[in-house]
Amino acid sequence: MPRKVVFIADADSWSGEGLLARFSQGGTDLILNSSRDDKEWEEALAACRAAGTEALITHVDLCSGSGISAMLDQAEKRIGPVDVMIHNCSAMSPASVEDCEETEFLHIMQRNAKSAFFCTQAFGRRMADRGGGSIIFVSSIHGEKPNGSSFAYSASQGAVKMLAHEAALFLGRFGIRVNVIEMGPVEGTDASFPSELSGLYDNYRYKVPSTKLGTAGDLAELAFFLAGEEASYVNGADIRLDGGFSLHYMDRRMNKPAGERNDSHEPKLER
Predict the structure, then answer these.
(1) 185-210: per-residue pLDDT in tens?
(2) How far from each other are the two terminal CA atoms of the chain, in whole angstroms?
(3) Rounded to an integer, what distance in angstroms lies between the CA atom of residue 72 and that of residue 82?
(4) Is the pLDDT of residue 47 over 60?
């Protein structure tokens, strides 16, 4: 069976690092889009070679359809056509609806949503010509749920979600599966959504029912499944990966450690 080729749109990000680690061990070759200097990738590329994975570093502007096509022409000559496109661009900056500047709004929308459109168009056309493929969007629960901090980020993730639905409907006719992973909080995201409006991320760890936060590895395992033949009937799905965080809506029901509890407000199991 020929090896699959996987494109990771933002290899520099925390999610990109997790995806690289998983897919490099999974019998695939990789195209890693990065803004970093090639020299910074030497160690990672050596690890890929040791695992039997060929990896190609690119620096393409994902908001340029012609740029993506030119990159794919070169990549196909070296390691073959792309079977799996993972779009994991997730730029954000604190700004409310009232005070968000136009330049800031456009930057976030271009980085997250416009790039998703051009990637879908460029990769989708080539996958359609070959009769199959998988497109995976690493998005956010904030495509539906306001975060009270980064209005433009939520708007961009909502756009990505609907783009994915439209693409799943159209590209599915050519054997291409398009799915969305809606990420919730992971380790280190407590500083991502500072807000005077919402307490959503206050004590956010304890709003996950198990109090165990997800990791880049959890994301990578789900993406690896969606990229594989085991997920051949999964198309147009929004898969929430948040440990149940989105189900929480009452601060007084947080599952805090025993030393921080107010027992009169803690849930109890009837026996």
Answers:
(1) 888 665 666 667 777 777 888 888 99
(2) 55
(3) 8
(4) yes
Q: Is pLDDT of 261 > 80?
A: no
Transcribe 37-97 into DSSP letters.
-GGGGHHHHHHHHHTT--EEEE---TT-HHHHHHHHHHHHHHH---SEEEE-------B-T
CATH architecture of 4-8+78-260: 3-Layer(aba) Sandwich (3.40)
Phi, psi angle pair for 145, to nearest 5°: -105, 120
Contact 246, 49 (CB under 8 A): no
Name the residue type at position 124: G
So what's the pLDDT on residue 41? 96
For strands 176-183 and 28-33, give the pairing.
unpaired
Distance CA(217)–CA(208), nearest Å, equals 17
Would you tell me the crossing angle of helices 216-227 and 14-23 to the nearest 10 degrees?
Answer: 50
Two structure tokens written together for 45? 């590329």
> Per mean pLDDT, which of 61-75, 84-98, 248-262 is the most reliable?
61-75
pLDDT at 267: 54
